[in-house]
Amino acid sequence: MSEPSHTDHRPQVSRRTALRAGGGLALGVGLTALASAAPASAAQRGTPLCDEPGDSAAAQGVGSSDLGIPYYREHDGTWGYVFGDTWSQMQQYGDYLGSPVMLCQSGFDASGATPISFTWAMPTGGRAGQLFDYRTNADNGFGFEVSRIPNDCIEFGGRTYIQYTSVGTWEPPAGYDGSVMSGVAYSDDHGVTWRDYPYHWAGDIQGVNQSMYGMWSFAGIDPDGWLYIFSKRWNGTHRNTADGGAIQLFRIWPDDFRAGNFGAQQNWAYLDGRWQWTAAAPPSPILTGNNIGEFSVKRIGGRYCMSYFDVTDYSICTRTASRPDAVWSAPKPQIVGDNRWPTSHWGKPQVPSLYGGYIHPGSASPTSLTLLVSQWPGVLHQPPYRVLQFDGINP
């Protein structure tokens, strides 16, 4: 793929510090037919999915973790959830299991009447473990890697894909993103074994700082046949001073993607005085502004919905558009770190030290989304380090 030219509210305890201590696509086509509209009275409003005594994650060997990126397992109609750095016991105690880690669910209740409950773990169907075959806190041939953090997952045509970022340091100098590279791993046995495509997008440690291919979100395969993908710079620290909130858009035929023919992408670019799909120029930023961390884009009920962690506003915001390449609505804060200020946060659900904010592709409707929001403890081995479920979000 072509490479374009080259107020943090979150607590300052880094994940790298935690690692040292602990380690001693959903397609979006037709998925809303699986769910009914969510009554507001039944909605989950911050239900913890891990790091709680006796929860379903613990039954699968997961104590504390984050992200919980949901995807539709189209081969059998079930659901997968991909987590980042994971520990076997609550409060980041026990064994460090690695990243990424996957838990699965036989059926998702989009009405919000019952929270997500995990029914088995990958990669073996037994206790949860790291999906990818690499060593954390080691050089695996690309440079020193702390861990590989998943950004999104999608399954189509019998193959499952995870796009990830390899983290070289959680504490880079100002203006640097601290990533080693980003890549796409795939599984042909529905998540049991994984291989990497040979092409990787170089990151900061490899000399390409602020690559716009650092973090991806698979919006899904549109009825027009294209796989639409949004991407942005890696911002794992949430203090990336050069981030600027830029997000770009490209698309690729699913067969080309499966073959690893990533150079076949078409880019949504402003060229010759107009926006157009082209292979003659890199993608142009479609959104800019506040510092943006993790993000998610999914096609829900025929409409494209976006959520992201707005680091500057200290909130999970949402936007919508009729098409991936259409004009997006204004950002709307939904879940906030502090609901006392500014006034746009008044009355919003409050989650201190929040981040993430992934759209469930089985959400009830484009006006009733399920979001999975992460919460960071700020102090090592102090609760919580977990994922929370919010239903009935109207973007």
From TrEMBL:
Pfam families: DUF4185 (PF13810). Keywords: Signal. It comes from the Bacteria. Residues 1-42 form the signal peptide. Residues 53-390 form the DUF4185 domain. InterPro entries: DUF4185, TAT_signal. Transmembrane segments: none annotated. PROSITE patterns: TAT (PS51318). This is DUF4185 domain-containing protein. It comes from Streptomyces lateritius.
